[in-house]
Amino acid sequence: MILPPATIGVLGGGQLGRYFVLAAHKLGYRVLVLDPDKQSVAGQIADEHIIAAYDDVNALNYMATICAAVTTEFENIPADTLDYLAGHIPVRPDAAAVRICQNRSREKSFLQAHDIPHAASLNITTEQDILMSPASIYPGIIKLASSGYDGKGQQIVENKSEALAAFNQFNSQPCVLEKKLDLDYEVSVVLARDDCGNIEFFPVAQNVHKHGILDVSVMPAPAFPDHLRVEAESIARLIAGKMDYIGTMAVEFFVAGGQLLVNEIAPRPHNSGHATIDACYTSQFEQQVRALCGLPLGDSRAHSSAIMINILGDHWYQGSDGQTKTPDWQALLSIPALKLHLYGKEEPRPGRKMGHLTILTEQSGNWDLMAANVRQKLS
Ligand code: ADP
Ligand code: MG
Questions:
Q1: Which of 234, 258, 250, 248 has its CA nearest to residue 114?
Q2: Pairing mode of beta strands 30-34, 48-50
Q3: What mean pLDDT is reported for the chain?
Q4: Would the CB of 148 count as within 6 Å of ligand 1?
Q5: Same domain, yes or no, for 124 and 270?
Q6: Is 103 inside any structural domain?
Q7: Of these four, 103, 152, 306, 340, which has the most CB atoms within 10 Å of its CB?
Q8: What's 137's domain CATH number?
Q9: SS3 117
Q10: Which helix (H) or strand (E) holds 339?
Q11: Is the peptide bond before 220 cis (omega within 30 degrees of 0)?
């Protein structure tokens, strides 16, 4: 066990890293953040912020000297960095797990190899792969194999010629071409797994995306039948077990035609797990700290149902009167049992996650009405 006041490290310094720092501080750890962005919102509140590239050997050597163990909050950390650090200190999750999750074609091969249901997909590395694609894959979605997030690096394509155009637009970088499904709804399973293989599941969340970005997440998922919950947890358990995963992980699922299909795997806490901060005995971030340090996992159960709504930078804008508009904080904070979270980002940009809010409520079946009420106060 790594005990406080040891220093632990996190690669990546966005809002997920910021909550990791807060959870670690609550337990008495010191935290070092490595993120090249000097404005890093995790770096702002960490004990130390190393501003360097993720493959800067001097920075990694320093991190390995100072930290008792390291985790990540961002799947696009070079896996070689995790391997390098693992030569000196425990790294959780390990490079092998992150390597799979950071590349959609490796992820699909992993799902295929373990017979885990997912949307039909093809790896695309040349135009020839598109010319050979079966008609049944259309309408499809072309997704960059690596570095996409929040719906970026994706394009809906109706046929081969649109697929070719999209592939060219992505500069012929490796992609996957996936069948576009008619979704009933989407859910995610967030779990924590320790170094003995014990797993704690958070309640399954139901997720609504807008323009490819998570908008609303309801926990527990109101329309999700229990037999599918059991199946989703068993798939997530299989994935975490096959990766020998240590830490907090999320599995995003599609439900289409009443069937579960894995969409993608995040080797880190997840936006749809933010409600765990206010609604669960142990948050997804505290579990990440506990798993990293070899402490017993906490109780993941929820003490309340919750609705989580993301706050994007779109809600800050210049009005026609020349004034800067911001969300109506007064009205929002008057909603009962509403918890406001802002991440400390200086610059609001469209599509940028500035914060979120969580409403604790036993009436989460009315989530769409509550979300509409919040939206009105946001803009
Ligand atoms: P990101 O890394 O941006 O989260 P995802 O692959 O999860 O990328 O896609 C973002 C969202 O786009 C999904 O949550 C879903 O709403 C929609 N989407 C992605 N793939 C499909 C698909 N094959 N069929 C239908 N909708 C999809
Ligand atoms: Mg996703």
A1: 234
A2: parallel
A3: 97
A4: yes
A5: no
A6: no
A7: 306
A8: 3.30.1490.20
A9: coil
A10: strand 338-342
A11: yes
**Residues with Cβ within 8 Å of residue 226, at least 6 apart in sequence:** none
Q: Specify whether 215 is located in the same domain as 144.
A: no
Q: Which structure tokens are listed for 367?
A: 């989530």
For the chain, what is the domain count?
3
Between CA 181 and CA 160 the distance in angstroms is 17
Is the CB–ligand 1 distance for residue 200 below 6 Å? no
CA of 48 to the centre of ligand 1 (A): 35
Report the share of the chain in percent with pLDDT over 90: 95
Q: What is the DSSP string of 36-70?
A: S-TT-TTGGGSSEEE-S-TT-HHHHHHHHHH-S-E
Mutate to test the pocket of ligand 1, among 254, 264, 310 (most ligand atoms within 8 A of CB): 254
Strand partners, 340: 357
ω into 78 cis (within 30 of 0): no
Task: Read off the tokens for 5.
Answer: 């006041």
Same domain, residue pair 197 and 172: no
The span from the CA of 172 to the CA of 150, in Å, is 21
Amino acid identity, position 153: G
Q: What is the pLDDT of residue 379?
A: 85
Model confidence at 14: pLDDT above 90: yes
Give the closest ligand to the alpha carbon of residue 103.
1
DSSP tag of 300: -
Residue 186 Cβ contacting ligand 1 at under 6 Å: yes
Pairing of strands 121-124, 140-144: unpaired
- φ and ψ at residue 172, rounded to 5 degrees: 55, 25
* Parent domain of 82: 7-91
Say whether pLDDT at 112 is over 90.
yes
pLDDT band at 144 (very low <50, low <70, confident <90, very high): very high
Burial class (CB in 10 A: 0-12, 13-18, 19+), 265: buried
